[in-house]
Amino acid sequence: MPISPYVREAGAGPTVLCLHANASHSGQWRPLMDPLSGRFRVLAADTYGAGKSPPTPPGRPLRLADEVELIHALLASAPEGVHLVGHSYGAAIAFKAALMHPPRVLSLAVYEPTLFAMVDRDTPRPNGTEGIQQVVREGIADLERGDAEAAARAFIDFWMGEGSYERTPPERRPSIVDSCRNLPQWSHALLTEPATLDELRQVSVPVLYMVGGRSPESSRCVAERVIPVLPNVRWVDFPDLGHMAPVTHPEPVNAAIAAFLDKVAAPTA
């Protein structure tokens, strides 16, 4: 029996599928789903091990291709195709879906896809990925010592700034800690992804690529390499926002996504 993700759904019209960041879940897209649902069918899926979706497949390391296969039925549910929205890990999955199932993907609206393997394959180190590489090493070591909270603290503070984990409301921390137990799987999927920058040149659909001016170098270095190879891309820089802006400052990010979708996927009467 096929494994299915947990999915939130709202509205009717052209299909928009939203994919969340690591240490998050589909609920992060509620502020986008509500305003879009009047003119789009909006889906938001939990990735492996997140929210209410099943745990990562046993027996081998997780791959981005596995995440794409998890949402395959959602991609196939719209005969006319799907518009993908993704943040961080979810944005990396969105690009992988566009490579694996090009006829089904009509556009991409992404905020800082974490395609670190493409940077490593393109440029010898030091290349900007050192920060995330260090966090992964430290986080996995914390998990091996049985200290999942230390792994979560390191991960959240890297992406959101020093002290961010301690400022997180105590009632929200347990779910973040539990999610960060997936760090070895996430890192394997992102750091060993075989797709290349040359392959991304074949992604001809419209792409909205968003970056934050206050994001770590590890995410901005991906943008520096990916944006130039995309044939149909619009780049938007939010100078005062960071990597987690779709969660911490959803209004400007979601406004840019909605404007993009209205342009490329305006429902027909």
What do these coordinates show?
By secondary structure, the chain is α/β, with parallel strands linked by helices. It has a domain at 7-116 and 195-264: Rossmann fold (3-Layer(aba) Sandwich). The chain contains 14 helices and 7 strands. Strands 1-3-2-4-5-6-7 form a 7-stranded mixed β-sheet, sandwiched between helices. Strand 4, helix 4 and strand 5 form a beta-alpha-beta unit. It is globular.
Q: What structural category arises from helix and sheet content? A: alpha/beta
Low-confidence runs of at least 5 consecutive residues: none
- Spatial sequence of strands, sheet with the most strands: 1-3-2-4-5-6-7
Structure summary, number of beta strands: 7
Global morphology: globular
Output mean pLDDT: 95
The radius of gyration is 17 Å
Query: What is the helix content?
Result: 40-55%
Looking at the structure, the CATH topology of the domain at 7-116 and 195-264 is Rossmann fold
Strand content: 5-15%
